Hints:
This protein has helices at about 45-50, 140-145, 145-160, 180-190, 200-210, 225-230, 250-255, 280-285, 300-310, 325-335; strands spanning about 5-10, 20-25, 35-45, 70-80, 90-95, 125-130, 130-135, 170-175, 195-200, 215-220, 240-245, 260-265, 290, 315-325, 340-345. The chain is α/β, with parallel strands linked by helices. Strands 3, 4, 5, 6, 7, 14 and 15 form a 7-stranded mixed sheet that branches. The longest helix is centred in the last third of the chain and has 14 residues, at about 300-310.
Amino acid sequence: xxxxxxAQWNVxxxxxxxxxxxxxxxxxxxxxxxxxxxxxxxxSLNYRDLxxxxxxxxxxxxxxxxxxxxxxxxxxxTGRTVKEWKAGDKVLTLFNQGHQFGPHRPADMITGVGGVVxxxxxQYGVYPGSGLVRQPETLSAQEASTLSCAAVTAxxxxxxxxxxxxxxxQWVLTQGTGGVSxxxxxxxxxxxxxxxxxxSSKEKMEKLKELGADVVxxxxxxxxxxxxxxxxxxxxxxxxxxxxxxxxxxxxxxxQAIKLEGVVSIIGFVGGMQEKQPTFLECLTNLCIVRGVYVxxxxxxxxxxxxxxxxxxxxxxxxxxxxxxxxxxxxxxMWNQKHLGKLxxxxxx
Length: 349
């Protein structure tokens, strides 16, 4: 018999992590004809999850939403018209439920899991069959739970522009050791590209080298790391791709690093905000493409999963694992930047 209640978290306000509220027996929505009931085993956190309860997230949100975009689980039951899925299938959540293929449409922007649509930080969830993706065969549930947001975003950054997709032998600049950056590093190396990575930690420098980074720069010791990256890449011409996660505080150096006709993909602003930042003029003087990336489509997710299975990529997962009931502690751990790669939450076996 299908469960009728679920333990879950809700975002009840926008003043901080204390607005995260835990419920042990919330009602599970009834299953529609096109819906699938999923039991979650693991979820993973993203910077986006942290800033939603802090009131800093710039995209649409629902009141009292269940947080979390990334989750790996098992299909428990399906609606009568669902053909793609059956009980027992291993599935992952699609970040923007409406973004099936091609460019974003305005309607896709209001289908974000954990923002508008109830998310994965719960035992059970109901989603349209079209809003799920098959788990890669070579990954465990914990590993696969890291893919929905960070991995698809990194994939889109490198392959989302068909005319500028990453090629063997090109150079990529990544920033730090968070989820998007470590996935971008792994995808780039799997494609035969070279990578300049930045960090401020000597310990993390070693990890980046283990992952295959060709050059690691300490941005605290060298504030002009972008200029240095340019000297090192393509005979001094600069890098072909920048996966920009820092935001206004790092964009100026990213523009220093980029090659003419290169692509700077703006992912987020984990470095915080500041008044002084580059203008459109820098894009012109560097003759580069600067694009915003908001995760990616189901088609991109499926392409990425095929590449993961073929290449044997294993997500970088922090050694610390939190239980669902300890979610606030997980948020604080990640906010304090103690994590390396993706931080996961164990939900059910």
